[in-house]
Batch of 2 targets.
Target 1
Amino acid sequence: MRDGTVPRAGVGYPRSLHIPSTRPGGTHVRYRLPRPCWLLLLYFACILAAAAAPAEAPMQAYTRPVQSLDGEWKVIVDPYENGYYNYRYQPFDQLAEPPKGAYFRDAKPDSPTDLVEYDFDRAASLQVPGDWNTQDPKLYYYEGSVWYRKKFDAPARRAGDRVFLEFGAVNYRADVYLNGRKLGVHEGGFTPFRFEVTGQLRDRGNSLVLKVDNKRHADAVPTLNTDWWNYGGITRSVGLVVVPAVFVRDYRLALASLADREVAGSVQLGGARGGEKVRVALPELGIRETVRADADGRAAFRFRVPEAKLWSPQHPQLYRVEIASGVDTLVDRVGLRTISTRGRQLLLNGEPLFLRGIAVHEEYSADGGGRVRDAAQARQLLEWAKSLDANFVRLAHYPHSEHMTRLADEMGLLVWSEIPVYWTIDWGNEATYRNAEAQLEAMIGRDHNRAAVIIWSLANETPVSEPRNRFLSRLAARARALDDTRLLSAAMEKHYREGDPDVAVVEDPLAGLVDLVSFNQYIGWYDGSLDKLDRVRWQVPYDKPVFISEFGADAKQGLHGDAGAIWTEEYQEELYRRTLRMLERIDGFAGTSPWILADFRSPRRPLAGIQDGYNRKGVLSEKGVPKKAFFVLRDYYRGKAGTAP
Ligand code: GCB
């Protein structure tokens, strides 16, 4: 949605992202039921039916007209979850007759003596999309629940049309209610989700209420501990998508054979009976094909495009794609390219590729804000990356907004996209695994038609153990099953050869499962002094390309001094110089994404006068002012790209 359109992708993902709105364990509480049990059963049946519906939902909302629900939302901050639980700590939404005190009812007093202790109409407002932390100073450190309410009129629709409510992302847990009924729950702060609301809309004055809860949990993904700000709120756009009874739910299209210039793909219809005609067109390439949907509403296609120009960072050529069935047409733009490896080489369109990268958090603090709110802010981050002569961004440490991946397609930046399986996840917990898998599916589902995205990353700096290895191998298998047209990786760690502290080794069972052996290393910062960078020798015993997904040092922009003193721009500059020299000595070195483009907020960085709540490893300050290391990296990349003056 965002600017009136929304994207999606995910042909053949039968699983919805939704958690049924009754939580396991939620029913062990004994409630007094004022009505017969069948009423309760009916209530739960409705909830489950609503939560189950999204398996049929359109996945490409970015490409469709959307009735935006962005803008001002009424909010009630609720640290004690007073609007969710009664005074016996029973969730209101599991009672047969929730009282008016349940905020999701968006209730009003009926008489002068009717006690209702909240009123959304008189409450404060926040902008959506947007984190709450940077919109109200009182909420800067807040971690807890905030209720959001939006009133809206139903979109125009014809008989038989279906309506879906689409959320770009809500951090972290969203309990969603429409006109006093629960639609369901979603967990995971960086991925899109949706509910079908056909038949549940009033023509005027619908009340959409969300309880948004960003409390951290040990069994969540990410877990309790991260080095970034836990921005809460409805951080990406919300909108309504109307589709006809039979609609293009999703499609996939990719260059399957470089030699034959052959494109292969599939279309998944929603609401189909089987046998429907599906038209696939790439008008600029003279392609107009018609295929038929099978009994599951799926249609595969394959055709040659001998005239096509391939997508690359130098020439980010995108072609218009039209997918139509019945009265529904979906229009998108895609690039055609292949990504592969040969031994220790990375190949883009069959040609050797070096990744001139930079890591990026989805934070834009130049104007005091936090989470990126719109395409303009996303573009600014990517333009900063381009000004380094980068051809690659590591979008850390969670799926960034669709603005980022779509702009990367347009601007010619290759992308590493990752899920927040970060540090010490609860590896042995099946629910945690399913949560991570749902986030992986949603990430791949959203962006599988983006030529820019070449790497799905599974995890960051996770400590080797049996449960962790099992968790990540399952995740790797799932990623392969969902998308075999991209590379898999994960940011791993190094250790030193026993008895030889100058030999750094990357050995991890995960390296056997991925296509690109990536690791983070901080020699000269967390690990020894700058001299060590000149001494260390590397052993990466896999016949795969090697990628250094992080290195860096904190420097306060404007703080100058001796290159031997940390926190100065000179120290960071010297670390960059020596690290880049060291990386060149690694066999199979195929690129790097230094940590990080710009300073970003982190609660782990309190040092007054230097950090002031920011991780200062940016090559730019949070306002976008370059530090000396920026120029070292830019010159190195210019040399690599052959664009050095
Ligand atoms: C890392 C993490 C990254 C941190 C960075 C740091 O290894 O992957 O999330 O922000 O180090 O600055 O410590």
Note: The longest helix spans residues 430-447.
Target 2
Amino acid sequence: MIGITVPPPVRRYIPGMATLNKQARSRWLQGPSAPCETVPKGAHLPWRIVLLGAPGVGKGTQADLLNQRLHACHLSTGDVFRAAGNRSDCELSPVMKEAVAYMRRGELVPDTTVWDMVRERSECLHCAGGFILDGFPRTLAQAVSLKQLMDTEGLGLTAVVNYELPASEIVARLGGRRTCETCKAVYHVTDRPPRVADCCDRCEGKLFQREDDRPESIKVRLEAYDRSTAPLIEFYGKLGLLMRVPATGTPDEICDKTVPELEYRRTKQFANLLWAAEENRRDT
Ligand code: AP5
């Protein structure tokens, strides 16, 4: 008898609880020469989720929460570029230096650079615990490349979650965001302030404002989203993978709305796989 293991839910969001465990995603953050020290326990059908939504809608916050509840690895392309931005210039390749400059201006990094970086880390797509892709794909070309790679390697997506929020609320979320420089936990100066100003609740690291959260970069990022990323909603809608989730309410409330639908989709995907295997067996 084959069963799906669903871990018990964790009820309260604690910023950075998942991101603190950085050694669990060191292969993603630092590249294939830094294998992960801890790998999540495998499930019969790992979660393979893509998060979509405008900058600041709360993808990183939700990825952290989904990681706590589902134990799938949080793979953020923005985190990889920010980690590169923290290194000294002489440690970076010319291509990575250029990528960091695009990020600081709020522009999208060119597709070839992003794809080379993801392909180099493609082992992470096979992670036994599954993955939550945050910030990738972000253009149609990236989505097509990801689909081709996953089809070739026999991997299927569980779902693509699109978080939706009015633009005015998005700007307020970005303007008030503060991030811990040590564990990368995300706060908001009014909505989710730390207990002590500018100090992370979990690791006491210093909180900082991201360079691309300045008003001039926010405008560029929102325009890039409308132009390049919004068309992915139709792309994944046509593939039957899209889940629309209003990003209003507390982070826990949003996650509570998301998880049951994800579970339903994974159960359906599992049943389809069993059905296909049975048909195959009968045909041979
Ligand atoms: P990336 O890091 O992916 O940034 P982004 O998509 O712009 O998203 P953000 O991290 O800004 O926001 P979020 O949706 O994660 O919101 P968060 O949870 O932090 O990319 C950065 C850059 O890297 C790009 O601009 C680009 O240059 C480059 N890049 C990365 N990937 C690329 C790719 N594939 N192709 C090309 N270029 C790429 O929340 C925001 C704030 O809201 C926080 O303060 C949080 O506390 C608060 N908040 C969250 N949820 C709630 C809630 N429910 N209620 C109230 N406040 C909330």
Note: The pocket of BIS(adenosine)-5'-pentaphosphate is lined by residues 53, 55-61, 76-78, 81, 102-103, 106-109, 114, 135-136, 138, 142, 173, 176-177, 186-188, 191-192, 212, 221, 250-251, 254 (CB under 6 Å).
